[in-house]
Amino acid sequence: MNSTPSARPTPPRSRGWKIGRVAGAPVIVTPSWFLAAAVLTVVFTPWVQGLMPDLGTSAYLVAASFVIMLFASVFLHEVAHALVARARGQEVHELAITLWGGHTAYSGGMSRPVDGFLVAVVGPLTNIALATVFWLAFLARADNGLDVPDVLLIGGALSNAFVGVFNLLPGLPLDGGQILEAVVWAVSGSRATGTIAAGWVGRVIAVGVLLWGLLPLLRGTFPQTELIFYLLVAGFLWFGATSAIAGGRRREAISSLRAGSLADPVVTVPLGSTVAAALAARPAARPGEVSRRIVVVGYDDVPLAVLDDDAASSVPPEAREHTGVDAVSVPLVPKSAVGPDVSGQDLLRHLATSSGGARLVPVVEAGRVTGVLDLARVAMAVRRS
């Protein structure tokens, strides 16, 4: 039951059955949900039987109704994430109902801590609001003894209160962890620092859940069903927190990537130059130095194209004096230029939205071309990170 920002524009979709759309994204019920629903029905049946012993085998039907109502509340939790994420400028990719409740996947290009805070907090607040509504509805019913609607209303109030409060615990992958991430991000100025901090707190929470599940051992009891539940929850939290820490470290490494540092040096020639003049303008590279790229510029030094060295070398020497440089150059995408100090996620976002699929992007500072950025080199640097 968490919101999941994704760094990829089109992440793989969860497998399952599409039952509708919310915020422009498909709602998917995964096969694992049916297992969760069956297990929870068995788990909650004794609770129903304890409240209403006369139900007999009908207690299973009441427990199943409660489980469906619980997942409907989880779905509203995810709808809240999706609607706020879309309102904050994110592209929502899917809402999935899963073994662990559900998740909402959306693009991870948030530029402000407040956006992450609002998307995260609205989910648990939705459950707390639902818990209040269920409880008030229970109190409003006539006191004629406990019946099935009372059991469902009490269960709805307690389960939503638990889901809301538990998800507010300040550790990733819980919503409260994303809130902590946003707070640390706002204070430190680094989202990566916030992610790593919230991931470590998530690990502490995972250990706490495990220890809480082991407490009955101190009393000489060994509740196997409950212990398995705590082990599963602790494992889910631990692996989610560990993944978050790794993601934070990747984001930290990516933040050090800078356009100016990754760019190849250049020499510029005006539009209309010949291949011979362009090649003559390039100084010889010193040992260990990268050969300068030749950029064709137009009026006001606007970068127009980059010389294709292979194409230029294929022009016979006697024809280079008469062949225009534009004939052997790769055009640059208009308005794709990036500043040398643009770095990290801002750099990747710019390249994804402005390069138009081209491999080369000019680096421009104060109206002057200072380098050419090869997206293959950027991708390699990201993989190393």
TrEMBL record:
Q: Name one GO molecular function term.
A: peptidase activity
Q: Which Pfam families match?
A: Peptidase_M50 (PF02163)
Broad class of the protein's primary localization: membrane
Q: Which InterPro entries match?
A: Peptidase_M50, UCP006404_Pept_M50_CBS
State the UniProt keywords alphabetically.
Answer: CBS domain, Cell membrane, Hydrolase, Membrane, Metal-binding, Metalloprotease, Protease, Repeat, Transmembrane, Transmembrane helix, Zinc
Indicate the segments forming the Peptidase M50 domain, all copies: 66-139, 157-198
- List where the protein spans the membrane: 21-47, 59-80, 117-139, 151-172, 193-215, 227-248
Task: Name the membrane topology term.
Answer: Multi-pass membrane protein
Where, subcellularly, is it found? Cell membrane
GTP-binding keyword on record = no
- CDD domains referenced in this protein's UniProt entry, alphabetically: S2P-M50_SpoIVFB_CBS
Sorted alphabetically, the Gene Ontology BP terms of this entry are: proteolysis
User: In terms of domain of life, where is this protein from?
Assistant: Bacteria
Q: Which cofactor does it need?
A: Zn(2+)
UniProt remark on cofactor binding: Binds 1 zinc ion per subunit.
User: What family is this?
Assistant: Belongs to the peptidase M50B family.
Protein name as annotated: Zinc metalloprotease
Q: Which organism is it from?
A: Myceligenerans pegani
